[in-house]
Fold:
Amino acid sequence: MSNSGRHFLQVPGPTNIPDRVLKAIHAPGVDHRGPHFLPFAIKLLEDVKTLFKTKETVAIWPSSGTGAWEAALVNTLSPGDKVLMFDAGMFSNLWVKMGKMLQLDVQVVENDWRRGADPAVVEEKLTQDKNHAIKAVCIVHNETSNGVLARLADIRKAMDAAKHPALLLVDSISGLGCTDYQHDQWGVDVTICGSQKGMMLPTGLGFNAISKKAREAYKSSKMPRSYWDWEWMTGAYDKGIFPYTPAASLMNGLRASIDMMHEEGLENIFARHNRFATATRKAVEAWGLEVVCQDEREFSPSVSAIYLPEGHSADAFRRVAFERFNISLGAGLGKFADRVFRIGHMGDLNEAMLTGALSSVEMGLRAAGVPHTSGGVDAAIAHLSQAN
Ligand code: PLP
Structure:
């Protein structure tokens, strides 16, 4: 492999970290109870709310996204509580596993991994639950393993139509910052996020946006917790104080990424992601390959999962692409292992980077002897060169 030029990181998280964010992180340590940090933290805790479109508190832990999943469950529920979860992909599946490990009574809806959680099924399950035994509905907004975006606003409507009081807990780890997300407007009770996707940061910050209803549920929740306890974590946020050492350098990076996102404008960012996702799917179609997602209402704006033709190893193809063309592509996960590869098109990306990545994919298909039609890059270029 030639090491010249930049490595193309096209996995669906961690994503490319902009130079401005890298520079912000590259800072000396700071006294997190001192006069520099406190006003910085107060403003950051306020401004991060804009990414979630919420006025409520957003808790930030030094953690990966998995920690933020756990925080959402242990602060709102009690052992043995019924929760409704969909097995709609690898991450939904892992969240189910966590729920079971935490001794929740997980009602798993078996879901086609090529589609998102169905709002009609949510309505049906909640309507059947006359005694309101189900305490929470847990939804992965953007399934990173299969490139499927759940119809969250419709799921909220379905819960309202069923007149059911369950909490709505949402993992938007790979959706937030890439596609519209409205914590308050959609009546989400806990939004879970991680720093290494749309926020363009390294892994290491986990987030919970917390509704008033979730705060109420916290009061009666009996799940054992300490590190993840909301009250402990957020009790002195108004003074900029964290209960234990915050990841200050990542928070410097978050400051820079929020500023960049405000400068570009959230709506422009979402439109850019849609444009790049469409261009990627046009390339896939021209290659004669197939994306996993089967419902065009659910195409993910941040990641595309793509089948290789039967009998061809997706991992062997990814290895050729890596070794020959210095590009990292996402692996197929779970049921899709070795059948699917994924192109992340989220975060800090422009047209030249995307077409460069798609060119490397096309070269990789050729070099690995994967049957396809050439012209995918051309199809993407045709889409991207149209006026925005
Ligand atoms: N949920 C989704 C949708 C993800 O994409 C990921 C990671 O890729 C996770 C949860 C787990 O997050 P982490 O790996 O940061 O713990």
About this structure: The mean pLDDT is 97. The first strand starts at residue 8 and ends at 10. The pocket of pyridoxal-5'-phosphate is lined by residues 13, 64-66, 91, 140, 144, 171, 173-174, 194, 203 (CB under 6 Å).
